[in-house]
Amino acid sequence: xxxxxxxxGRRKIPRESVRISLYRNGSVGEFDAFIRTDGLxxxxxxxxxxEAYHKSDWMRFDFGAVGEPVIPQDRKLTKFYDGARILxxxxxxxxxxxxGKILAEVDRLTPLSAxxxx
Length: 118
Known about the structure:
0% of the residues lie in helices and 42% in strands. By secondary structure, the protein is mainly β.
């Protein structure tokens, strides 16, 4: 059995708490993200970031604070070519004391497309 030690105290965001949908807006892909952070006991001032990535290309979007979420107007995925298998990660980052410390995250999220029923 492989044991993993968590010295940083980083929490895992449950996959069920994040829903990401991809759609096309003209010739450019865009996404919508629904993120629930309740129950994780995170500071209300911590920032929430959504990162879209494919291989070594990535884009970061600021979704506001845990206590005051804000959906960014521009969610266009301009760095990726058509047909790229884009994955997402969500990070909650501390803003006080230890600036930049990741408090919680979930990685390798597969988005729903406009064709998915679920």
